[in-house]
From TrEMBL, chain A:
Annotated GO MF terms: disulfide oxidoreductase activity
Domain Thioredoxin, chain residue ranges per copy: 35-175
Name of the molecule in the record: Cytochrome c-type biogenesis protein CcmG/DsbE, thiol:disulfide oxidoreductase
Compartmental location: Cell inner membrane
Native organism taxonomy: Bacteria, Pseudomonadati, Pseudomonadota, Gammaproteobacteria, Cellvibrionales
Family of the protein in this entry: Belongs to the thioredoxin family. DsbE subfamily.
Gene3D superfamilies the record matches: Glutaredoxin (3.40.30.10)
Membrane topology: Single-pass membrane protein
Chief localisation class: membrane
InterPro entries the record matches: Periplasmic_diS_OxRdtase_DsbE, Redoxin, Thioredoxin-like_sf, Thioredoxin_domain, Thioredoxin_ResA/DsbE_sf
Domain of life per record: Bacteria
GO cellular component terms, A-Z: outer membrane-bounded periplasmic space; plasma membrane
From TrEMBL, chain B:
Biological role: Possible subunit of a heme lyase.
Organism: Pseudohaliea rubra DSM 19751
Family classification: Belongs to the CcmH/CycL/Ccl2/NrfF family.
Keywords recorded for this protein, A-Z: Cytochrome c-type biogenesis, Heme, Iron, Lyase, Membrane, Metal-binding, Signal, Transmembrane, Transmembrane helix
Protein name stated in the entry: Cytochrome c-type biogenesis protein
High-level lineage: Bacteria, Pseudomonadati, Pseudomonadota, Gammaproteobacteria, Cellvibrionales
Lineage top rank: taxon: Bacteria
CDD domains assigned: CcmH_N (cd16378)
Length: 180, 153
């Protein structure tokens, strides 16, 4: 190698390092891949918030639906709530998982803010949350008609998220099912 | 005196803040395994803490789950697999060797080899490599230069 070219080695190294660091800045370390993707919804048998009836996998699966992990102590859930109402009004089935919450507070919340959920699973101890791999509310799982988890979104569901990732996937799954 | 007593009491109260929660184990070896496993499992919420150190509610749940599994007689491997099934390979500080983690595990060796090769090249160059004998023209020029230098002195 010509000695003159060697002088550029530090610059090249710096360039590589800068690229790596720039990439590192854009990654969100809090976004964990779900271990549950393409696996069935974990088995559970938990009471419904509204009626107290026992809910199991069989009672809540059968069509493409969203499973939204929420709680009254979760501030982002409150921000997210109006958007869920909008989705429910548009005909998207949403089930709630009331995660580590006080049931009477949760019922009050639904009475005050409206209820976008088909049903709410009371997960007071967080056992279903543990099985799902929930690490913070809100989280939203897209489950297909066969009860297989297809996608997990951590954080608030809003217009941007719905239009970019959740919505297209939902339409694809729902469309594929009605077509067959 | 009173101040002394207050200070003394405050000092005595400190260690109690460090305790998170305690479990009664049916066998001492379970407790040993609990310690090592809770240090090897990473808290999914707080990222850079293990579940033994973390105060997050999720870590508390995971510790309880770990305790229940240990008491139920699960092996270390079963417990780790179960945790990975929920939270992915992320929860382990020592992930399994597979396609995704091959670079992670081999990077130290790779860098060692790279550094070794670099050091070998630099050392060989410093030693000067094979020397070439001067041919007759060069020898004549060298002699002339040396003669010049002698004359100048």
């Amino acid at each position: 190698m010509a000695p003159r070219l060697k002088l550029f080695i530090p610059l090249a190294l710096f360039g590589v390092l800068a690229l790596l660091l720039a990439r590192g800045l854009q990654l969100d370390p809090k976004e964990l891949p779900s271990a549950l993707i393409d696996r069935p919804l974990p088995n559970f048998s938990l009471p419904a918030l509204e009626s107290g009836d026992m809910l199991t996998n069989a009672t809540v699966t059968g069509e493409v639906a969203l499973f939204n992990v929420w709680a009254t102590w979760c501030i982002t859930c409150r921000v997210e709530h109006p958007y869920l109402e909008k989705l429910a009004a548009a005909g998207v089935p949403i089930y709630g998982i009331n995660y580590k919450d006080d049931s009477s507070a949760a019922r009050r919340w639904l009475a005050e803010l409206g209820n976008p959920y088909r049903a709410n699973i009371v997960d007071a101890e967080g056992t279903l949350g543990l099985d799902l791999g929930v690490y913070g509310a809100p989280e939203t799982y897209l489950v297909d008609g066969a009860g297989i988890v297809r996608y997990r979104h951590v954080g608030e569901v809003n217009d941007r998220i719905w239009e970019s990732t959740l919505g297209p996937l939902y339409r694809q799954l729902a469309g594929g099912e009605s077509g067959s | 005196m009173r101040l002394c007593l207050t200070v003394l009491l405050m000092l005595l109260a400190l260690p109690s803040a460090a305790v998170i929660e305690t479990y009664e184990f049916s066998a001492p070896e379970l407790e040993v395994r609990y310690r090592s496993l809770s240090q090897e499992l990473r808290c999914p919420k707080c990222q850079n803490q293990n579940i033994a150190d973390s105060n997050a509610p999720i870590s508390k749940d995971l510790r309880r789950l770990l305790y229940q599994q240990l008491e139920a007689g699960a092996t270390d491997q079963e417990i780790l697999e179960d945790m990975v099934r929920r939270y992915g390979e992320f929860v382990r500080y020592r992930p399994d060797f597979d396609r995704n983690t091959v670079l992670l595990w081999l990077a130290p060796l790779l860098f060692l080899a790279l550094g070794g090769a670099l050091a070998a090249v630099v050392l060989r160059r410093a030693r000067g490599g094979p020397t070439q004998a001067l041919d007759s023209d060069e020898r004549a020029r060298l002699d002339a230069l040396l003669a010049d230098k002698d004359r100048a002195q």
